[in-house]
Every structure is written in C-alpha cells, then in structure tokens.
Amino acid sequence: MARILIAEDEAIIALDLEAILIQAGHEVVDTAANAAQVMAAVKRDDPDLVLLDVGLGRDDGIAVAEELRKSWAGAVVFVTGNADPATQRRAATARPEGMVLKPFVDEEVRNLVAEALQAVAARRPRGA
Predict the structure, then answer these.
(1) CATH code of residue 95
(2) I need a labelling partner for 98 at 20 to 30 A (CA). Which of 6, 12, 85, 107 fits?
(3) Does a structural domain hold residue 127?
(4) Measured between alpha carbons, how far is 112 from 48 in angstroms, rounded to an integer?
(5) 20: which residues sit within 8 A by CB, 6+ positions away?
(6) Considering only CA atoms, which of 63, 36, 38 is closest in space to residue 49?
(7) Which H or E run contains 45?
(8) 3-class DSSP state of 73
(9) Which domain holds residue 9?
(10) CA of 48: how far to CAs of 26, 58, 124, in Å?
C-alpha cells in the first residue's frame, strides 16, 4: 500500500482517481487543486507518489513537478487531457515516472501507479 497525493483541479476526476486508488489498496493522503496546496501537502504528508494534473487550474503542473524534484524523492505520474507532442516533450523534462491520458481506464491508472512506485523504490528507501 502506498501513500498517494492527488493533484487535480476537477473534483469529479479527483474523486474517480481516489476511488481507483483506494480500490487498489492505496491510501490517498490528500487532494490538492493548485500548486500551493500540492507543495504544502507534499511537505506535510510526504506521499510516495503524486498524481499530478499537467493543467492544474491556473497553475502549471509541469513546473510543480520540477519544483518537487528539488527536495522530494517520490514518484510523479502526470494526468493530462493534452496528448500533443509539445506538451509530452515538455512534461518529459520533469522526469515523471509515467503519464495517464484523460479519459483514463481504471486498469491503466493502477498499472502506471504500480510501475511508478516500483521505479522509485530504489531511490527512496522504505520509511524515508
């Protein structure tokens, strides 16, 4: 079971992601709808993974991920409805462990989260 932060400004999508993660046996530590909430929740809750919307309201989820990488060793999986090549190239610069495209399928979210958690396990010792 992993501790996961959902960073999504659309409440219905956040609720859907939360249900998928809980059903998969994970703990959702919080939901955040903007960059400030994400940064505060990561500092407070130290989740294992952040599911991060690329277009986080008026904030830039890619910039948020880049800022997180400076001081946090958890996994980032982007969630986006924007599959254009320019966005994907820009998102790759933040070194996410994965990207989920909206609309998503439950199994896709579960699989990407599992892969992302496995990818960061080596760089983030248990209990760290």
Answers:
(1) 3.40.50.2300
(2) 12
(3) no
(4) 14
(5) 106, 109, 110
(6) 38
(7) helix 35-45
(8) coil
(9) 3-105+115-121
(10) 10, 25, 9
- pLDDT confidence bin for 124, thresholds 50/70/90: low
- Integer Cα distance of 122 and 81 in angstroms: 30
Q: Do strands 27-32 and 75-80 pair parallel, antiparallel, or not at all (unpaired)? A: unpaired
Task: Encode pLDDT of 23-38 as tens digits.
Answer: 999 999 999 999 999 9
How far is it, in rounded angstroms, from Cα 128 to Cα 126?
5
**Looking at the domain assignment, is residue 126 inside a domain?**
no
> Could you tell me the pTM of the whole model?
0.93
Select from 63, 56, 73 the least CA-distant residue to 116: 73
Reported as a single tens digit per residue, the pLDDT across 46-61 is 999 999 999 998 999 9
Residue 72 CA to residue 67 CA, distance in Å, equals 9
Domain count, the chain: 1
Dihedral pair phi/psi, residue 32, rounded to 5°: -130, 145
Nearest by Cα to 78 from 16, 64, 30, 107: 64
> What is the DSSP code (8-state) at residue 81?
S
In the DSSP assignment, the letter for residue 76 is E
